[in-house]
Amino acid sequence: MANLKDVHGYVDSHADDFIQRLSEAVAIPSVSTDPSRRGDVHRMALWLENQLKRYGVQTRAVPLGQQEVEGKILEYPPAILGRIGDDSKKKTILIYGHFDVQPAEKSDGWDTEPFELHVDRESGKMFGRGSTDDKGPVLGWLNVLEAHHALRIELPVNLRFCFEGLEEDGSQGLDDLIVTETSKGPQGWFHGVDCVCISDNYWLNTRTPCLTYGLRGIAYYQIIVSGPGSDLHSGMGGAVYEPMTTLISLMGKLVSVEGRILIPGVYDGISVADSSELQKYQDLDYSVADLEKVAGGPISLSDDKATVLMGRTREPSLSLHGIEGAYSGAGGKTVIPATVSGKFSLRLVPPQTPDDITKKVVSFIEDEFAKLKTKLKMKVEFVGGGKPWVADTNHWSYEAAKRATETVWGKTPNYTREGGSIPVTLTFADNLGVNVLLLPMGRADDGAHSTNEKLDISNFLNGVCSSLLSNLSSFTQNDRAPQTKLLGTYLYEVANINSDK
């Protein structure tokens, strides 16, 4: 890893430039779920593609289709594919990330403007929508590319890139793109890929880096109950069946207050953790206090660390999300809604699949509705979902990431499963037939999707193979100590491991 010393020197002298580039990215409000911001997502795609081209990356912007919104046809933002290096003697790593973000308004409770990166040098934190999810990690790879390009140092591996602008809106069209490119064989963009690396998740806590080898899947539903031809005055109450009453009754039958899913058959086939697996959870650097810190209150379902961790990552869960069609404004409105819909989702674990779970969910709700014997109408709709994923941590990619983490942070990483979902992870694993590594940059308190989303400067710069800015005096010695940083070091460790073999 002799070249890393020169790379570090370059990054040390350009750290402010890297933060400025993140500021430029955050300033583009690429909110994919808001049709009025669709132009900004396209602008972000073009900005990112141009950045890649600056460092010798061959790119391709791939259209992903169209959608109709309020009578208008809108183009989905393109996926940005990239490639650099075609040395058959080197491993080829595919990097995935996304450049779209969640909605954000200062009135939501932000302390600063969400689309203006606020760099707090005293605390060492950078606040802005997309800073940690997922623009910071994506730009980490750009910074690695820039350092090697500027110094004319050859990358130790071949790289392929797949960046999308619809992750926050269901990754429309991405699965089809991956399947299509894979089916092309040697002419496909992903041909020859040896492993996939994704940085779109977070540490378990704020202390210890982690490598993530599992994600829960998801199945999302809504129950729609209707009856009256229009909203009714509540003076009709007591004389008619009310959709809201029925909906709440049905939603109340789905899950207990202790989090136990009440739908028959949901837990079928899920293995029971043995003593060895339970010990792995106990050995992780994590506590119930860590969970409650992130949750913002003492609300854990258990005081046992292993139980809490398994409940968050290894076991399925069901969450109720909201009700549409009901009055929710200020003051009182004495109305009986004509139609209401309740939304909920299940987080899935192996061997569960959305198809199998949907059959059980629909059957259960229909049976429970029939028992109510109302004159109302009810239907259950499957909104979308994705399968769970678990990877082999004995793979050389995980070993390289472990070595890099130990070099950078001076700690052995936690090996974790996540409670959330990144459906494209399984798409890559199934279609490319390769190992997928989740190598997070952010910490547990980053607040992705929330107000005041942030990314620690130390994580951002460590993630791009750099020492910290010399004038950030508040950092601890541990923050300053690493001389080789995570993403770049990982690439070199991949090359070293495979050359040894």
Automatic annotation (TrEMBL):
All residue ranges annotated as the Peptidase M20 dimerisation domain in the record: 213-370
Organism expressing this protein natively: Somion occarium
Identification of the protein by name: Peptidase M20 dimerisation domain-containing protein
Presence of keyword Membrane: no
Keywords tagged on the record: Hydrolase, Metal-binding, Protease
Lineage of producing organism: Eukaryota, Fungi, Dikarya, Basidiomycota, Agaricomycotina
Pfam family, one: M20_dimer
Family according to the record: Belongs to the peptidase M20A family.
